[in-house]
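To whoever is covering the structure queue this week,

Two jobs came back overnight. Logging them here so there's a record in the thread.

Job A:
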Amino acid sequence: MKGRVLVIAGSDSGGGAGIQADIKAITALGGFAMTAITALTAQNTQGVFAIHDVPDDFLARQIEVVLTDLGADCIKLGMLHRAGVIATVCAALDRFAPNVPVVVDPVMVAKGGARLLEPSAQAALIQQIIPRAHVLTPNLPEAEALTGKSAPEADRAEELAEALLALGCHAALVKGGHREDAEVMDLLVEAGKRPVRFSSKRIETRHTHGTGCTLASAVATGIAQGLPLDQAVGRARAYVLEAIRTAPGYGAGHGPLNHAHTVKPGEL
């Protein structure tokens, strides 16, 4: 069974988001996770306290050695915080994985408010990364920032998604969790297909750290395993909802999810 996912993203020392969340989600859904780390963060549930860059040449080497040996069925892009990182990733993918589907989570701001995309890198993200995306997975503020459009009401989500498609991605999953409605509605718009709406009752909790990373990696795992995109998204949403519902409650801020809810203790 396919299921190899290379994640190119930043590390979260608190374990709730970033590479750590990606590995957990991919593994919990039966995939095989590989990584190329773009940056190290000193981070916990209360915020991001420091960011340490990984040199561009070392980032490129991580991507090269993984793809030329292990290969990948899907690639997930997360925190690409500098224009140099974006250029490095694009060059490596052109050389070593030109035909592998890419899921792009446009990480711009952390849950606690810290900016994770340098202002000078936003244009590079739009021009160089988004056109490569098989599916783009922005939350509402990210989608609005990328398109310059506002969509405070759920019935305008399709307009926002179409504006994202116009930037060059094949599909866009616009997440509605930042609205305050009792129902959370996510919209999937795929080129040449009718929009698909996913709706679920809002779970009132502060333990939502890493939901964006987790959802994108779960979608990437589904794609890597050969699922149609709408099924990959549906399974990913169900996985994330249960991970939120059963969150362990760690930390004084935005706590992590229960990524391991698919794993039954005592089965080994």
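Job B:
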Amino acid sequence: MTSSATPASVGVFQSDGHCEWAYVEEGLRTGEGLLAAVATGLKAVTTDGHRGPASPDLIMLDQGPGQFTGLRAGIGIAQGLAMGWNIPVLAMDSASIMVWAAWEALEKTRHSDDVSGSDREASGALLSDALPALHWITVRDARLGAFYVAEFGSLEGLFESEGASVQTLGPERLLDIVKNRLTLNPHRGSIVIVSDPSSQARLAEFNGFDDVSRAKPVWMQPRASDLLGALARLGLAKLRRGAQARQAQQLEANYVRNDVAMDLNAQRAYRRAQGDLTKI
């Protein structure tokens, strides 16, 4: 289950990573349909496929960072279900899940003759057999003029990360980091920036973004269904490498910055300073 970004999603997976059933919310809801979807999904699996048990063996959860309300909903639902079913929870940071989803998409593109159009163009720099060492940067809008940012020098970092590598950075600092990485890795396609449409649009509002775009990093925007599958398959890979699931009461959301949940007065002050009161 993942609810750190909109739309939230939940799925039922086999132990080999195959998805038997999945649900992706519509619109701008923040996880409110996940609980009902879990019941629907398990019923669909046990009645139609009759392959699985009435309850799962493990819950895999995106623990953030991400949107505050969605994370609270996801954590609360996961805790309640884990306690009711008496099963453990494997929680992973959203940055690792984003990178794994992007990597899966690139691998699919490299090995598929049917990929064309924007998908092939987006990853065209990575289609050769001799690939450069990739450097991964994840960017997600943290609101209030900041971004959640994480860097991974290799995929191996995903198995070590527990979210501590995620920082909250302003746009200027983020652009400095990206420019520095592009200088150190001049080969086109050596830098992969994983984000989402709204975060990339927000970043484009700041000066300097055009220079970064002209440097030709590879931009990836995994869909909600991609993130859900990546969550399950990365979790299974981590388990094989010795990762330990937790009990429900041990779960904590990875908010990174507590001021994301600013009170209404602070939000008004921030937006007034930006000259925009229309979204309050």
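Note for Job B: The two ends are 30 Å apart (CA to CA).

Please reply-all if you pick these up so we don't duplicate work.
Q.
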